[in-house]
Write a structure and sequence with these properties.
With 174 residues, the protein is mainly beta. The protein has one helix at 169-172, and strands at residues 5-12, 18-27, 44-55, 62-75, 81-94, 99-108, 127-135, 142-153, 156-167.
Length: 174
Amino acid sequence: MSGYGGTVSLGRSGTSPWNMGVTGTWRSPGFDLNDIGFLRQADVFLQTSWLGYRSNNPGRIFRRYNMFVNQWLGYNFGRERTFLGGNINGRGQLNNFGGISSRFEWGITGLPSMALRGGPSMKIPGDMGFSINVDTDDRKAVQFGFGGGQSWANNHAGVLIIFIFQCDTDRAMQ
């Protein structure tokens, strides 16, 4: 093994409503742990950051809610950007104990080396998508949910619609 690797993280969480963090991870091309463990990929530098706000104070509409902004970036040791993206997401619990969540995500054209399983890097298109979900009180024996989303990648689009029905038979029989 002739390589090196590591991770550095700095962040803040706890009782404050504001939470944040940044992480950097690197593994040089010669870094091979597979003799003593498991490593999916070397020759990588990964960076992530996030900022979030949480409120547990009931208001007119929400009992509690959170919102987060996340960002990620990757390079190889040849200084080629392998990925770049981010998202904004949030979830709120309504005063009637139902919930609503949403997400918007994007990714810029990438160059992952793992796409061809050991071959050269392959350029992949960027993508973008969003989703929104609504659900009923999860304390109840019978619960319903509805959600949907849209995604776009290289002039191709997809739509996802989800219906959820869940019945807790133990609670329903009481």
